[in-house]
Amino acid sequence: MTTPSRIALALAGVGKIARDQHIPSCAEGADFDITVAISRNGRIDGADNFTSYDEFLEKRRDIRAISLCTPPDVRFEMAKKAIASGFDVLMEKPPAATIGEAEALRELAEKAGVVLFATWHSRFANGVEPARQWLDGKTIRKVEITWKEDVRRWHPGQAWIWEAGGFGVFDPGINALSILTAIIPGQTIVEKASLAFPENRQQPIAASLKMKSAEGAPINAEFDWRQEGPQTWDIVVETNSGLLRLAKGGAELYIDGELQVEGPDREYARIYSRFAELIRSRRSDADFQPLRLVADAFLTGERHTVEAFIE
Ligand code: NAP
């Protein structure tokens, strides 16, 4: 049962991120009850479970909000149908498979008068908003992004991630780009990219991006999925008055080597608070700049073939 102050939520795609983050964040948070789950293989105990999305749309018109935790290649059709049925929609990152799909969803949501929240979970990491505030008004001289992790550890058995439209190493890399575009003002521009494709896969396992800020500061990013041992999710910003470092995916903030911000992971708790706030104020939040940077990396990228990836 949902109390009047809590919002009944449907969740589609009961996979890794739904189990790791969405379900516990809703259970612990003050705003949402997951009353419906839609997944062909997964279930949520205590929810009304559907295996067919269309059947859910037909039968549960009483629910007004939905969280889409499916991979990006199927997100557009699901979001489009949810918008047409009058749902307020939260979309996991990346918001869609292409910019065209993302922009179309924005327009459809606007026309339908529903809330569209394209989430970027890394933007809700502890250090990101303090980093944005610290950088405000400073001159940025250079940015270095190092995002290196072990794909076997973080994406076990996820075949979709290697298929066309699956994003490959940009699935984590876009998290770095979502932080970058939250803390650096203006549009970031991709100048060139180098993409390493395993000979047996459709998506890159590593990528190097040369970018620049709107004001011309160089921004370099190294994304790699072949890192075993310690994992690295760092952004270092050199400014006219100090060096900022976001470590552990934005969880920790250092200024000139001194730790400023740390603490427990509250990314998804903040995402759901934000979704509730957007629903109550009838506003959308859909910024697609990180997706545009990935698209531009594919547009400008040189392709290199590397050894086959066998999981
Ligand atoms: P996952 O474990 O593969 O789960 C995806 C879910 O979507 C599955 O429950 C699957 O459910 C459903 N699904 C897959 N293909 C589908 C299709 N063709 N039609 C309908 N449903 C389909 O993936 P995940 O790691 O949770 O990632 C999902 C999204 O969350 C991605 O966009 C990813 O970038 C994002 N994300 C993931 C992480 C992470 O750590 N894994 C972190 C942050 C964000 P059924 O097969 O049961 O229908």
From TrEMBL:
Q: Which InterPro entries match?
A: Gfo/Idh/MocA-like_OxRdtase_N, Gfo/Idh/MocA_oxidrdct_glycsds, NAD(P)-bd_dom_sf
Keywords attached to this entry: Oxidoreductase
Pfam families registered for this protein in UniProt: GFO_IDH_MocA
Its signal peptide is none
**What GO molecular function terms would the record report?**
galactose 1-dehydrogenase activity
Q: What is its EC number?
A: 1.1.1.48
Q: Which domain of life is it from?
A: Bacteria
Q: Key word Oxidoreductase present in the record?
A: yes
- Gfo/Idh/MocA-like oxidoreductase N-terminal domain: which residues? 9-117
Q: By what name is this protein known?
A: D-galactose 1-dehydrogenase
Taxonomic source organism: Rhizobium paknamense
